[in-house]
């Protein structure tokens, strides 16, 4: 176990380094100069080339790419993500202000999607071939393919504009106004949860159908155990192992989807900040957000891999 964890941690470090190099070079290849985007048209007419060069020097943009990369990487290792070119504020502070909003949205979507998705998959497998199985399968197939940004726009038109049941956009802390916060989160959470929910339902149904035909399940039925006991005590523990594998992928889906959903619903979280930083060529903000997201996904996948041994004692780590 210790050897496996050590090897995975070393791999994680190399992956993070590779991600940092890719995002650093990709941003520099984008057309446009962040300094010119920072200045207004009036300031560009007034400022001389020397004054613009002073600004470039202030943000370290006049140095070579290798020097810029290692300066930034050294700062990250010391907990300093640099200063935003656009906001002229600490990147770390900008992310800390927006991370709670994204976590609030993502955790709700993650929990709701897997509770409902797994429940729907189990019911579909147990009631295979009946109308409930057909309905769940059709809805799961639709949920896998629907674009979440389109779904968000349609929900805004229907529930916010036409029916006037929910707020159009925005975010309010539940500590300030719990009811308003709940209404504002309904549509974004549904949009983020729809794809993981459908994926969990499909995988749960497939795994449960495979498990339900195994010998030990037939033995449980032959002992006269109740349906609930057979499903929850015997079938689900083995049937949900493949679903557990998908948790890391679903987390990546939710984090990636937050970029679109926070923009559609005007939620000032990490996703919206990432979009704004890319459009403004705010290199350090984009690099910082990418590294935080990559580290989170790698850590969650490591925890999931280690948890296999608890779910299935037959699994051995080498």
Secondary-structure map:
Elements: H1 2-29, H2 34-38, H3 41-46, H4 49-58, H5 65-77, H6 91-126, H7 131-145, H8 148-162, H9 178-211, H10 215-222, H11 227-239, H12 241-245, H13 247-264, H14 270-279, H15 283-311
Distance between the termini: 7 Å
- Portion of residues in beta strands equals under 5%
Rg, nearest Å: 24 Å
CATH topology of the largest domain: MetI-like fold
Plain-language structure description:
This protein has 318 residues and is mostly helical. It has 2 domains: 76 residues, no CATH class; 213 residues, MetI-like (MetI-like fold, Orthogonal Bundle), CATH 1.10.3720.10. 77% of the residues lie in helices and 0% in strands. The chain contains 15 helices and no strands. The protein is globular, with a radius of gyration of 24 Å. The termini are close together.
Structure in a nutshell:
77% of the residues lie in helices and 0% in strands. With 318 residues, it is mainly α.
